[in-house]
Amino acid sequence: MNEPFGARLRRAMDERGPLCVGIDPHAALLAEWGLADDVAGLERFSRTVVEAVADRVAVVKPQSAFFERFGSRGIAVLEQTVAAARAAGALVVMDAKRGDIGSTMAAYAESFLRPDAPLYSDALTVSPYLGYGSLKPAVDLARESGCGLFVLALTSNPEGGEVQHAVREDGRTVGATVLARLAAENAGAEPLGSFGAVVGATLGDLSAYDLGINGPLLAPGIGAQGAAPADLPRVFGSALRDVVPNVSRGVLRHGPDVSALRGSADRFADEIRSVLAAA
Ligand SMILES: O=C(O)c1cc(=O)[nH]c(=O)n1[C@@H]1O[C@H](COP(=O)(O)O)[C@@H](O)[C@H]1O
Hints:
8-stranded parallel barrel; TIM Barrel; alpha/beta; globular; binds orotidine-5'-monophosphate
């Protein structure tokens, strides 16, 4: 069995810093890079991002939607992207945000978390909003394969609150319940559990939530959605050390030049390092 994802992630964060660069080939970015909105453009874009950052950041996060747009040939590019990024030493979080009834969830888990699957990744983003228990097949397979999950808890988008801040009969919010489930999943894991939460960097003060889940906190929202590395201490408080800040468009807009992309990722990484050192 692989070493558990949480242990591999903690080491990568220690060695490379915690930054995650998203690989999000938006049609608008392909156009800005002078690429056609087709499979060749997608392939060129993804290869360039991997070349620029996968040897220096802890994590890359391909966003499956932008590959699925091109059908089976887009998925083939996604497979190549995952393999190339892992070969360059980055951990790959597949951002596919899967969530379904348990029996179907088992098939989603096999698609991304079974070591012989073509899209095998180090971790997968999943949605608990069919009920946290529906994720059990993914939790079980992740444990067995040494993979991780990132479970949507408090998302970065303004609409998320209507579900995630809703108060249950027991007085707890739905988002707090997801966090508590993850803390239970990670109990006793060292140096870090493999079951992470997605918590937006855009959300401001989250002191009402217990973010101490002994697992990683994937924090999208920096750059294009308006948050900055300097916001992280206020949002994450004492859980700051477990935060994996994600930047997608904020880095990608600097392409297609490899050294400009790399420079942008390095600047975000440096800024995050200083924020962590000062906290
Ligand atoms: O799971 C995610 O990664 C995610 C969760 C969330 O709450 N908000 C969020 O923006 N994301 C993803 O993070 C990336 C953010 O991209 P940028 O806004 O371009 O940095 C996109 O791929 C989103 O799909």
